[in-house]
Write a structure and sequence with these properties.
alpha+beta, four-stranded mixed beta sheet, aa-tRNA-synth_II/BPL/LPL, cytoplasm
């Protein structure tokens, strides 16, 4: 029997890990520079936490049996877990809180394709306790800084507004809203045409579906709809954000009020980061504003505003592969320390430790015996090791460069 990873999981070999860390280290440096601090939450959560008040579909969560009453599952995303942690473990926190994460998530897939991936890696941020224009702009400009740090070009941001889209959908009959919402999310005009809607509502659905393009054009279209005062205020806020982002000229921006995320806790702006250098667009990350999520977990039900995003490490990895920026080999050791005789073993370990105590990273291997001098040299060459230190019984080294 050949043992393989579980269906939907995979192993990362050392070179895969080096490439993954290259991406994560650059993202972490950006997060640090913007004043964000890392948070690590439990991989395993209660189902009522993970589902975020039904905002996340149960079938998305990989559930576990623990033989007790609690329903448990593996996190399909990080935002709900961080929201739960902040309001229950950081009650005296000063806001705003700037948090970032780098972790794996698990999502059940119900497509028929064999071994469909179910474990993913994400890095992202949550900005909690701040609403309004500046907080929204900070998160979107932080996305741009992250991709610039990776040297990624040829991407654009698709920006929507969940509150506006949801309010526009409220005009439809309650029993059809989910179907209209799904059709708009998938740009499914056939379904819109087949639903039992009045001509006026069918036209409204088509208009919502077409609210995509340059910011000024979309804002003009949506302003022409019959909006109430709250909707107009939301449109004006979105207009201010678009103008601020376009003045920064950090990235191409597409405004899309048909953008609907599958996770339904968003209350304000939503966005997708899309790479468009390939023949097929690839979504590199998603995010948005969720001003009612933390209230689900707060002991007094207090709503605390929040906004964040997650970048998909695998998708970034695939896009960056063709740029030749990622490491092509695992780092070679700098030294191979070899005790010449058994009496030199202790001295060899001491010399190796002295090398490792350098103020900068020095990779040092100890030869574990069983090879003659020629085999040791061949091993070092095969591994790209720069120098061998042959250690005598008295601890004195003989240095042999191999390059």
């Amino acid at each position: 029997m050949v043992y393989q990873p579980a269906a939907g999981a995979r192993d990362l070999l050392p070179l895969d890990v080096e490439k993954k860390r290259w991406i994560e280290d650059r993202l972490q440096q950006v997060f640090d520079r913007w004043g964000y601090h890392r948070i690590i939450t439990s991989t395993l959560e209660r189902m009522d936490t993970l589902m975020a008040g039904e905002a996340i579909q149960r079938q998305m969560v990989i559930q576990l049996q623990n033989g007790e009453d609690d329903e448990l599952g593996l996190r399909p995303e990080l935002t709900a877990s961080i929201a739960r942690t902040v309001v229950t473990r950081m009650a005296n926190a000063t806001y705003p809180q700037r948090l970032y994460y780098n972790a794996n998530v698990f999502r059940r897939t119900w497509e028929s394709r064999h071994n469909r991936q179910q474990e993913f890696y994400q890095a992202g941020v949550e900005l909690l306790g701040a609403g309004g224009l500046l907080a929204n702009a900070e998160v979107l400009l932080l996305v741009a800084d992250c991709l610039a740090a990776l040297g990624l070009r040829g991407w654009h941001l698709i920006l929507g507004e969940a509150g506006i889209t949801r309010s526009l959908l409220s005009a439809f009959p309650a029993n059809l809203q989910d179907q209209v919402r799904s059709a708009i999310a998938h740009l499914d005009r056939i379904t819109i045409d087949s639903l039992p809607l009045s001509d006026k509502l069918r036209d409204r659905a088509r208009i919502i579906m077409d609210l995509r393009g340059p910011g000024a054009d979309v804002l003009q279209k949506v302003s022409s709809l019959d909006l109430d005062e709250e909707q107009r205020e939301a449109v004006n806020n979105l207009k201010s954000l678009v103008e601020l982002l376009e003045s920064e000229k950090k990235f191409p921006l597409i405004l899309d009020l048909s953008l609907i995320q599958t996770i339904d806790y968003y209350t304000g702006i939503v966005f997708e980061v899309v790479n468009d250098t390939e023949s097929q667009a690839r979504v590199l990350g998603r995010g948005g504003r969720y001003d009612q999520l933390l209230g689900l977990y707060h002991p007094q039900g207090e709503n605390i505003p929040g906004i964040g995003f997650g970048l998909n490490i695998e998708d970034l990895y695939q896009v960056l592969l063709c740029t030749q920026q990622l490491p092509q080999v695992t780092p070679a050791s700098n030294w191979l320390v070899v005790p010449e005789i058994a009496n030199a073993n202790a001295a060899a370990f001491a010399y190796a430790q002295k090398l490792r105590d350098s103020t900068h990273l020095v990779r040092v291997e100890i030869d574990l015996g069983g090879r003659d001098a020629d085999a040791i040299r061949q091993y070092a060459r095969d591994r790209g090791i720069a120098q061998i230190a042959w250690i005598k019984a008295d601890g004195s080294p003989k240095i042999e460069p191999l390059r």
